[in-house]
Each structure stands twice: as structure tokens, then as C-alpha cells.
Amino acid sequence: MEPTRKTDRKGVQSVDVAFSILRAFERAEGPLSIAALSQITGHQPSKVHHYLVSLLNNGIVVQHSPRSYDLGPFALHLGLTALTRMDSVQVGADALFEFRGATDCACFLSVWGSHGPTIIRYLDGSRPVTVEARAGMVLPLIGTATGHAFLTWLEEGIWANLAKKEIAEHFGVVDDAKVHQIRTETLNAGIARSDGELLPRVAGLSVPIFTHEAHLQLTLSALGWKGDFDLDLTGILARSLHRVGEQASRSLGFKGRYPALSETGEFLADGKA
To answer: Cα-Cα-Cα-Cα dihedral of 206, 79, 94, 212, to 10°?
Structure first.
């Protein structure tokens, strides 16, 4: 008679408690107090504080004020390390370096994170753009080329609530027409763009990188000073970005029709020049 096999494996309870606290931070939109963590995790405030001390000592959590805590630098580095070990991120990074080598333009790679489009790799060009763009930074959906790319090629159910929130905050009302305009323009152009909508002096372009299942995995974006940055779809920036975006998608097994650049060289809205 064969011995009975146990299907459940016992872990270390203290590790489980620590991760329940970390998950609370991951799901939150900002810093949390001990009282909030206690309510979310179900642990006593004294117990939460005890674990926070160890998490603080190891850089996993940082303390912004006597009552405010958030994820720290080690948590960011750990997440980024995990991402870089994914094949898709390596393919995207290769495309990033190829584009920068061909154009000498500032560029970055983004994924969809728990709070929206998130930069995971940034490369400066010969003319650095002095804006805050760094690994771990979350970008708005509205007003950035990267955000517009996610609006256009990511499943609507993933970004719909965030888009409504952003539009309500910026325009005072929930206006679906704004999202429709962005998506129509981007689909017609075959590439996403921004032209000073978020930062008056900065322009950008962004292309999708799809998986073998035709899922938007990454975006590859370029940015520069408005006026100097070439937004023309027949220009070297748009053509080079589009080319490496498609190549990266093919490398990940994408077999579908990659978005085609507009033959007019112009961005169209609602089908009109």
C-alpha cells in the first residue's frame, strides 16, 4: 500500500505575513499608514509595525513621514530584475538599443503596470530631454504618446476606468469622445504621438510590441523637444521606431498585421486630413 501524499506544503508564517503587507502596498494607489495596513491585512497594528521595521531595514519599504509608508528601492529593483528576465523585455530592450543607435534619440520601454503605463528602461540621446523619465515611473494615459499607444492597442477593459478617472480630473467631466479621438487618430496613423499636450515643450512617438497571441506586451517610445522632434510619419524617427517595433513583435512570434504607418505622412482624426 502506497503512503498517502500530502498535497499541501507548509511555509514560513512570518514570510506570509510580510507578503500580505507587501501586497497591500502593491494594490494601493499611494502610501499607507499602519492603521490602514492593519485594516487591509487583518493584523494588529503592533504586529504590522514589527514587520515594517524589518522591511524598512532591508529597503523593501520606506517611511515618508511618522505615519506614512510605501514600497522602497529594493522592491522596485526586485520587480525590474524579474521583468528583465522575461524574454519579451529582452527583445524590447534590444529594439530600444537598435533605435537609439540609428537615431541617437532619447527613448524608453514601457509595460502596463498595476497603476498604468510604467517605464522599465530609459536611454538618453545626444540631446537629453530634461524631464523626469526613469525606470518605475508611471505615465498618464491622456497626453503622452505611450499612454495613447496603450489606449489604442490594449484591451479596453484593462484601461477604461483609469482613462475615465484621468479625463474627469483634467477636463472636469467624463468624456468618451476624447478617448475615441485619440484612438482614431492613432489607428489611422499607425503610431501614437504627443505634441506638447502634457508637457508644453516635449513631443513624442510610441509604437506597440505584440506577443504571439497578438497581446500588447510593451511600448517603445521616443521623445524630444517640441519643434526639434520630427513627428512626420515619413521622417527617420517614425520610420525607425515603427521598423524596430514590428521587428520586436515578429521576434515574439506575432503573426498578425502590424499597424501600418499612414501613407500621407500626416496624423488623421476621424478619417480626415
So the answer is: -70
